[in-house]
Design goal:
single chain, 99 residues, mainly alpha, 2 domains, 4 helices
């Protein structure tokens, strides 16, 4: 999975906030259910920008927020996967200790 650095994440977070605001605006104007406007439509700008940055077509706008590099630790010396947090002492996948 391609991850976002802090500068890229700031741009994505701004687009996410704009999508949330558009949902709130829609709700205030229509008084109807949010289900009538699909997530992919409300967050189209975010999903398009993420795809342009990473060449990965994500369909869930909430999942994009988890693709932030600083949320994870360095790569495990045992299995090569990122540690689950920057403070992790063990790899959550192979249980190898952090060096």
């Amino acid at each position: 999975m391609l991850m976002l650095d802090e500068q890229e994440y700031a741009e994505i977070a701004s687009l996410y906030r704009a999508g949330v605001q558009s949902a709130k605006d829609y709700r205030m104007k229509s008084q109807g259910p949010l289900k009538s406007v699909p997530l992919t439509e409300r967050f189209a700008a975010l999903l398009a920008r993420y795809e342009a940055m990473t060449v990965f077509k994500e369909t869930n706008p909430d999942a994009v927020l988890h693709h932030r590099l600083s949320l994870y630790g360095p790569l495990c010396n045992g299995c090569g996967r990122p540690l689950r947090t920057p403070q992790a002492k063990l790899c959550g996948s192979c249980m190898a200790p952090r060096e």
